[in-house]
């Protein structure tokens, strides 16, 4: 039986660009639905299951960053952000909201297709997370990406949860920054790994300067050491 083509939702307020993307992506084997803003995207998400979202950052009303953060809190659907803002801080901010990849405008349509396929292949390879890890009075639910201390659920950004999930899958095994960046969907940005480790330590460690659980492994990267 032939496998159904991946279904993409393209969210962009530029009707012309949305139409061009739709035609190009359909020609490359995808099913495509369009939405002009975040509100329309939410309506489409209630009616269809999508394999991946392509979301423009600069939209009237709810922008792409906020939409990404909101959606990632409820569902694991992959999201690729498009933006005219190519500065590193914007890219990092998008990844922190939970985006799986980030592409600056103008871009080659072929690169967009390659990035979409890479995200879909990566999602298909990932094992379904299960179980939990305990450390220092904390409990991390791998499947939910939820960190709790006693009955209190600690707030984690999407980027923090993604990084902690990657570490929790390989407890006590040192992981390189490159591996962590890939598994947490930071698009190979090792600097983002360092930034998120620092933020996680502030939430988890009694003394972030002398970490007990999120340890640095010299010459390699980081490791999660449970109790």
Describe the structure.
There is one protein chain. The chain has helices at residues 15-27, 38-47, 64-74, 88-96, 109-125, 158-168, 177-183, 190-204; strands spanning 7-11, 31-35, 52-56, 79-83, 101-104, 132-135, 138-141, 146-149, 152-154, 175-176, 214-217, 221-224. α6 (158-168) packs across α8 and α7 packs across α8. The chain has 227 residues and is an alpha/beta fold. The radius of gyration is 18 Å and the shape is elongated. The chain contains eight helices and twelve strands. The model has no long low-confidence stretch (mean pLDDT 87). The longest helix is centred in the middle third of the chain and has 17 residues, at 109-125. Helices cover 41% and strands 22% of the residues. α1 (15-27) links the parallel β1 (7-11) and β2. The protein has a five-stranded parallel sheet with strand order 2-1-3-4-5, sandwiched between helices. The termini are far apart.
Specify the overall morphology.
elongated
The helix/strand series, from N terminus to C terminus, equals EHEHEHEHEHEEEEHEHHEE
The strands making up the biggest β-sheet line up spatially as 2-1-3-4-5
Instruction: Tell me the number of strands.
Output: 12
Mean pLDDT: 87
Which residues form runs of ≥5 with pLDDT under 50? Answer: none
User: How many H/I helices?
Assistant: 8
Q: Give the termini distance in whole angstroms.
A: 48 Å
Question: In terms of structural class, how would the helical and strand content be classed?
Answer: alpha/beta
* Percentage of residues in strands: 15-25%
Give the proportion of residues in helices: 40-55%
């Amino acid at each position: 039986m032939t496998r159904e083509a991946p279904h993409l939702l393209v969210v962009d307020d530029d009707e012309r660009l949305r139409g061009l993307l739709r035609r190009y992506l359909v020609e490359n084997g995808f099913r495509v639905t369009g939405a002009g803003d975040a509100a329309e995207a939410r309506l489409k998400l209630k009616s269809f299951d999508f394999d991946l979202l392509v979301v423009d950052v600069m939209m009237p009303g709810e922008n792409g960053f906020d939409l990404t953060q909101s959606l990632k809190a409820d569902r694991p659907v992959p999201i690729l952000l498009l933006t005219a803002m190519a500065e590193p801080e914007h890219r990092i901010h998008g990844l922190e909201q939970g985006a799986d990849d980030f592409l600056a405008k103008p871009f080659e349509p072929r690169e967009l297709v390659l990035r979409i396929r890479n995200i879909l292949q990566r999602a298909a390879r990932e094992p379904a997370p299960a179980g939990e890890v305990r450390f220092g009075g904390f409990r991390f639910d791998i499947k939910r990406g939820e960190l709790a201390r006693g009955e209190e659920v600690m707030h984690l950004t999407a980027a923090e949860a993604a990084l902690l999930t990657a570490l929790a899958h390989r407890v006590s095994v040192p992981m390189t920054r490159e591996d962590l960046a890939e598994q947490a969907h930071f698009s190979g940005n090792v600097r983002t790994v360092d930034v998120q480790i620092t933020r996680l330590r502030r939430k988890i460690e009694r003394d972030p300067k002398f970490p007990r659980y999120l340890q640095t492994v010299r010459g390699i990267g980081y490791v999660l050491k449970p109790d």
